[in-house]
Design goal:
single chain, alpha+beta, two-stranded antiparallel sheet, 4 strands, 47% helix
Length: 166
């Protein structure tokens, strides 16, 4: 999923979703996959005939996730999925990423919201000027005082424990 959602604005929501399933020849399977996307994103079901270009930014992000689901990927690469979204929609995007992960899809996430990314990550890398400067589990980096001071705007208290959000 590229940064900026990149939906096909002149196609309907459903047509955009079907583009994601272009390699699936079995029509019944495509119909079932559409049902799965609509179950996960009921708002898309409500707007299935609406042109994608007329959706809100958050709805377009849901559509981009739905289109990715239709491709049944083993690896999903996400570039700044929270960019430009309202906080409520960011929560929805993160829920979607968790659902993909729980379904067995490997997620490669590039995200400037370090707090958000580290809470999701099994493995994380910090890059500065194109160089990897730190690596560890998301929880480890979230608890690292240097990461907290540089990227999260907070100093880690000396008694801070490591917690994983699921």
């Amino acid at each position: 999923m590229p940064e900026g959602r990149r939906v096909f604005p002149e196609l309907s929501v459903e047509e955009n979703l079907r583009v994601g399933a272009y390699l699936v020849a079995n029509r019944a399977k495509v119909r079932d996959m559409l049902g799965d996307v609509y179950a996960r994103f009921p708002r898309l079901a409500e707007r299935r005939r609406q042109l994608a270009g007329t959706l809100s930014g958050g709805e377009q992000q849901m559509l981009a996730f739905g289109r990715a689901m239709m491709a049944q990927p083993k690896l999903l690469m996400l570039d700044e999925p929270s960019l430009g979204l309202a906080p409520r929609m960011v929560d929805e995007v993160m829920r979607s990423i968790r659902l993909f992960r729980e379904s067995g899809v490997t997620i490669f996430l590039v995200e400037q919201n370090a707090n958000l990314a580290l809470r999701l990550a099994d493995r994380a890398y910090v890059m500065e000027t194109g160089q990897i400067t730190m690596t560890g589990s998301g929880a480890q980096l979230l608890a690292d005082e240097r990461v907290r001071a540089s990227y999260l705007g907070a100093k880690a208290p000396s008694h801070m424990g490591v917690a994983r959000s699921q």
